[in-house]
Amino acid sequence: MKSVFDPTVETREVVMKCPRAGDLLKNYRIDYVRNGSQPIGEAIKEQNLNSGDVMNELNILYEKNKDHQRGMTKWEKQKVNALIQYIIDAHHSYLYMVLPKLQDMITNIFNKYVGTHPELSHVHYLFSILKIELEQHILIEEELIFPKILAYEKKPTLNALIDIKEFVDDLKREHEHIGQFLKDLRELTNDYKAPEDACDTYRLAYVKLDELESDLFQHLHLENNVLFPRVIG
Ligand SMILES: [Fe+2]
Ligand SMILES: [Fe+2]
Prior knowledge:
By secondary structure, the protein is mainly α. It contains 8 helices and no strands. One fe (ii) ion is lined by residues 137, 141, 171, 175, 220, 223.
């Protein structure tokens, strides 16, 4: 049987064909959002992983899930307005809900443990900035850029396209920045491993931060690798 993925396939292609591979790549620290055009073989090498083993794992995952995936929405084939609505409903709504809760939890554990776990002061600082950036970012998408894209879909003009391209470049830069925050938070928290003496809130905060990272990876992947190329090529 021929394998669906070989080492030359771009990382974003892997996740588009097999959405479940997103979590696997995340666990291997392979960034399919910011480095979506990187060949998977190269990304595996960079992480000092065994190429044969990881390629095998990806191909098995694809085979196991391909029937299920057939029933899943292939966003690259859907209308742009449906994709935008999905991003807002699934990912932006999640952020509106989870960011304030996480802020409370992180402030709480920062106050309680900063004496014994001083890295929490940096975690608190980084998360607070990330929260502000994300809230502004999704608001600008919803209020300004998504409406421009929807208007362009209805009436495409060269001027509108040039305008959208500039905004999309800004959004991509912000995605880079968000990705860097996530990387720093993961390092600071020792891969979101709560220490032995952590209370339930501390543990839950790290679980929720890990979930936030997974959701943001899927969210930014849909924008960078599916939505934006659909609109600006
Ligand atoms: Fe977004
Ligand atoms: Fe975005």
